[in-house]
């Protein structure tokens, strides 16, 4: 394994730079301004969560950051390079793992596919696939097909595929929304473990305030559409987190109350408009 497995460092240059981002959808029936003016930066190795009221433009923002959707205005840059198409050093995990995995390929085949597209040599591909499957606890399921696995296991395959790609930036769009509560807790711990093990910058979109506070070093709270960054909350909880101790800490309750309050304000502001 030639990846750096040191714990992440909070210091480092900006990896992701979103500046004055705007997105208006146009259609025959009129236009919808989804993202009004978004500016934020993530440092190398940061794990930031993005929360906001339903329909506030989280997915729109993520698609613009991933180079899948052209913004109406503003810029996105990864490592100082403007994003106009999916950047080579970025991976995305979507909510709908069922639709993102190819049912006719094995688990190994699914994880390996993007590495073939990257034209990596076979020996390197094998090493990366094995490492990723081991990291998500699926080393024993490499020959299974996705439809033979539970929902939580399928989402772990999608995560393995993303980390095998060795991204500098990992985007996750409500990746655990479709799994049960216990699996979700396990996957949250998996993501924090992988983030600490591999040097990645992670932007994690979620509806769930508790999940955002539990996972993140920062929580960016978005306003209702048209969207701006309404609050940027530093999560000053200890780096070593576990579901029981962290979630029952006084500070966790205070932070979740702050994020909750901001989202309520965002909803009320949009109701007054
Ligand atoms: N392709 C599209 N064409 C027109 N309007 C769209 C399109 N995609 C999204 N929108 C609108 O843009 C706004 C933001 O949508 P988006 O899906 O980005 O929000 P979201 O915060 O991810 O939503 P949710 O929390 O429900 O997942 C909404 O008003 C939505 O109706």
Characteristic terms for this protein:
ten-stranded mixed β-sheet; single chain; Rossmann fold; 273 residues; binds adenosine-5'-triphosphate
What Rg do the Cα atoms give?
19 Å
Structural class: alpha/beta
Sheet with most strands: strand arrangement: 5-4-1-2-10-9-3-8-7-6
Bound chemical compounds? adenosine-5'-triphosphate
- Strand segment count: 10
Shape summary: globular
CATH architecture of the largest domain: 3-Layer(aba) Sandwich
- Number of helical regions: 9
- Unreliable residue runs: 1-10
Region (Disordered): 1-20
Pfam family, one: ABC_tran
InterPro entries: AAA+_ATPase, ABC_transporter-like_ATP-bd, ABC_transporter-like_CS, ABC_transporter_ATP-bind, P-loop_NTPase
Protein name: ABC transporter ATP-binding protein
Structural features, described:
It comes from Nocardiopsis coralli. Pfam families: ABC_tran (PF00005). The chain is α/β, with parallel strands linked by helices and about 270 residues long. It is globular and about 55 Å long. The longest helix has 23 residues, at about 250-270. The chain is about 40% helix and about 25% strand. It folds into two domains: about 15-90 and about 170-270, P-loop containing nucleotide triphosphate hydrolases (Rossmann fold, 3-Layer(aba) Sandwich); about 100-165, no CATH class. Bound molecules: adenosine-5'-triphosphate.
